[in-house]
Amino acid sequence: MKVTILGSGTSHGVPMIGCRCAVCTSENPRNKRERAAALVEFDGHNVLIDTTPELRHQALAAGLTKVDAVLFTHAHADHVCGFDDLRRFCDLRKGLIPCYGNATAMARLKYMFDYACTDPKTNFFDIPVVSFNAVEGPFELFGRRVTPVAVEHGRWGCTGYRIGGFAYCTDVQAIPPESLELLRGVETLVLGALRHRPHPTHMTVEQALEVVAALGPRRTFLTHLAHELEHEATNAALPAGVELAYDGLRFDV
Q1: Cβ atoms 93, 123 nearer than 8 A
Q2: Nearest Cα to Cα of residue 243 among 187, 191, 185
């Protein structure tokens, strides 16, 4: 299984509009962060995690030419507003793309994109042609077991996903004990860690490191990063086995 971090930034992205801080004006490409999303490849299938407003650009940068399914973490704008770009992938595959998420996220997507077609027999492919699948427990996707992991994210909640030894949990304020158990034994973890200062709906770097210490994954990549976190300086202060994700990062699981 291969994973590509398509975007590693917050809802504002980095550089942030109107900001002249050292990170927003940095020439280091790893300090340039589009909205958080990932691509998981296994057994010839491409599975997106979220459709950010930059999906078209992220797909071109990654050389992505097909999408077989989408896992949605939640329905905030920075995670779903590239949904319409799925129409190009529907056209390329000449078929429907299944979308998965919790019931709240699926209902919100249906409302936001009520023009999307759900008929798999349609021959009209200049709109997204999808199925909306509400999932609350483990399900099979292309022969792999996918386990949704409910995490806290303000009053909205968010869904992480585990596929074998890999787990992706982006917008996280806290992880309930029962969800932490679903992550036991994970080898590679992508985990949201906004900044060092406290935030009401996101973990700090320090809180994320507490989760890492509790789970003990072999590798952890922190994502959904604000402009307060300079890539090189933050990495230098992180413990062994933990590093910041960056746009275009690609690794094997």
Answers
A1: no
A2: 191
